Amino acid sequence: MIAFNQTTVAAQPVASGVVRQRLLPGEHANATRVVLDRLTLAANTTVRFDVPAKSLAWLQLLEGEAMLTAVYRDQLSDTHSALLPPGFNATLTTDKRGACLLYAELPDAGRLDPGFSTERPLFTVLDWTREPVLKSQHDARKRVALVSKELCRTDAIRIHMVIYPPGSAGLDCHHEGADTAMYIVSGRGTAWGTAGSFSVQQCDLLYVPEREKHHLQAADSSDMRFLTFYVPGKVKTVWTDPSKVSRWVSTGLDINSRETASDANTRRIYAANGPL
Fold first, then answer.
1. From CA 256, how far away is CA 160, in angstroms rounded?
2. 56-75, pLDDT tens digit by residue?
3. Quick one: DSSP state of residue 169?
4. Which of 68, 139, 196, 227 gives 20 to 30 Å between its CA and that of 18?
């Protein structure tokens, strides 16, 4: 497992009002199948995303608000993410406060998803706080799907928002068929890998190669929220103790215990010819 904080990564201007920190690959991990950047946008800045024909891209706002202009115009906050299909063009424009976001790109998505050439991934914009929550059968941990085959029609990558209440811990496991990256959005805790345990906190990135055993635990005094990326999205999880398999059950409710909603204000899913 490789772990580092984004503050240790050099920031480079890439356009007027846009600064990039390359988290993956980079000096800490240079052999990954995903490009992951943290972008800082100044006030009243517009950045254009032109996704190559063989690629797939995704973004999640971390701070601030911005207008995403593509098929329609969508106002994004720090609860919103968007999957951008191959060959897709979009712009993101900040207001007077500016914004920060994570931007992921798979340079050769077809290599990771056998159905990529015959089934076009969907342009998807969603608010994770209005999506169905999956709850662990063993404890109070929760997760919300942001990118999945069922949602976005791609197996190239799977992304979840994961919530660990104070003191809760995942079960020791490893993944077969995919590498894993975890970005700590808020809170703090402890991570375990083959090299031992270490503290993790907001803005840390953990990269776990395929088959390496690992697990996380939230601090007793703090919950912990993090984004998990599986590349590719089809992955097999193997638990160190098979009797403690972690199973996730849909609650049918969002993170605030409300009925989930899929109207135009909370989720947009588009095929090439328009909204689904």
1. 17
2. 999 999 999 999 999 889 99
3. B
4. 227
Measured in degrees and rounded to the nearest 5, phi and psi for residue 69 equal -115, 115
Where residue 110 falls (left for φ over 0; alpha for ψ -120 to 50; beta otherwise) is alpha
Q: Are 151 and 124 in contact (CB under 8 A)?
A: yes
Q: What is the pLDDT of residues 98-150, one digit of tens each?
A: 999 999 999 989 999 988 888 889 999 999 999 999 999 888 999 999 999 99
Residue 11 token pair: 């920031």
- Cα dist from 35 to 100, 159, 197, whole Å: 17, 14, 26
* CATH pick for 130-238 out of 1.10.238.10, 2.60.120.10, 1.20.210.10, 2.160.20.10: 2.60.120.10
Report residue 113 as tokens: 């998803």
Question: pLDDT (tens digit, 9 = 90+) per residue, 150-195?
Answer: 999 999 999 999 999 999 999 899 999 999 999 999 999 999 998 8
CATH topology of domain 7-126: Jelly Rolls (2.60.120)
Annotated domain spans of the chain: 7-126, 130-238
CA–CA dist 192, 203 (Å, integer):
17
Give the pair of three-digit tokens for residue 116: 């990529």
